[in-house]
Design a protein that fits this description.
Shape: globular
Radius of gyration: 13 Å
Number of helices: 3
Strand order of the largest sheet: 1-2-4-3
Structural class: alpha+beta
Strand content: 15-25%
Distance between the termini: 13 Å
Order of helices and strands: HEHEHEE
Length: about 100
């Protein structure tokens, strides 16, 4: 569970990121989950975009992806979401 201060810190880091995972018309599929797990394992903090052709609501799709990857939904703005998962052995981001 992240505190408000930690979420603010992560939001400030995430503002400079580009989306690296996109959820398309298929929704949250196995390849999307695998891709997100790989990227979040390497970066800890990723930005996800829900494309306009996705049938699901952006908040539902990103929440589903957060659950599937065991990550925390830090922020949701429009069709973009910010996911965080601390690396278990070698964390790159030190939270305040």
């Amino acid at each position: 569970m992240l505190t408000g201060k930690q979420k603010r810190y992560l939001r400030s880091l995430g503002s400079a990121l580009d989306p690296v995972v996109q959820i398309g018309k298929g929704g949250v599929t196995e390849p999307v989950v695998t891709s997100a797990q790989d990227v979040i394992g390497a970066r800890e903090l990723i930005k996800v975009r829900v494309l306009k052709n996705c049938a699901e609501e952006p908040k539902d799709a990103i929440s589903e992806l957060a659950d599937a990857t065991d990550s925390v939904l830090v922020q949701m703005i429009g069709r973009n979401g910010l996911l965080y998962k601390k690396h278990p052995e070698n964390p790159r981001i030190e939270l305040p």
